User: What shape does this take?
Amino acid sequence: MEVPKTGEFAHIGKSVVIKGELTGSEDLYLDGQVEGSILLKGNNLTVGPNGQVKANVDAKGVIVQGKLEGNLHATDRVELKKSAIVMGDIATQRIAIEEGAYLKGKVDVGKDGK
Amino acid sequence: MKMFRGSTSGPDKASAPAQSYPKLSRRSSGLGELARYWSSQEGLCILDLGATSPANIRYFTERSHKMYSEDLLTASTDPGLVTKDEQGNIVLDSRQFLEDNLVYPAAQFDVVLCWNLPDYMDESLVKPVVGRLWSVLKPGGILLAFFHTRDAGPDAPCYRYHIMGPDVLDMQPIVPQREVRRGPTGAIHRAVGAGFRLQRVFNNRHIENLFRDFASIKFFLSRDNIREVLVVR
Assistant: This one.
């Protein structure tokens, strides 16, 4: 998957480590490490192949290529790419999982991801 | 990749799982009986213990069931589990394993899909895992497991099972990727090697003993050296 251009996404590179609450009102491409929580209501999160997230995530859409430990709530959709490792519950409206993705947790597909 | 919703108007070609693996299909009488159960109910809690299957997740979420996925065989490759028993034999630490896996304080399941897990799981984990499965199943809950017969031979491949219809399964040989050999914690596990190997063959008496705390057990014989077992808690 192509790395989004910086102008379209906020970009956290693979050498960046963040501990705490991450909130924002723009789409985020995350290839570094985050421990805490991620809140992007109405916006999308992409966890890149080098991304390592230990956080509950609340966003509109989430694409995971790296590793994510925590519960994932997306009001629109979740995509787990083949390299994804997800350990946590997923609540969303739509979900797509590629062959090879690893998931440990609950999948709850419902209206508005609730 | 095709997105799928909780309620769609039937399967379509584009949403079928990737067919990049050698496709083997089989009919499953045990699955057929289970399918009659989950087709007549709504909002069931279903636990799939096989390797993560997009097809199974789609199958259940389309039918408004809650789906849990936990790849126990991969989880058992965690090198942190390796320990020695009182005789100095290398075993896996079942207590640690059950602290890290099959932990569902807020859920009890109507259905557990065990697939061929007991045949490939390390000996030290089989009984403790079945005991934990008893406790996470609701009373009246149903467990489906497959057991090889002796005729299957020691090299019987370990499959991932994809539900394709009420009594139809696609079987995909599990070729451990680098990530699988590493285990979920990321450390390399030397015992997995090129693939999961059949650890033992249970006879019918062994199977009955394994599930003796359950209320009932039903066997289905098939032509491909597999016995399917439906166990009711």
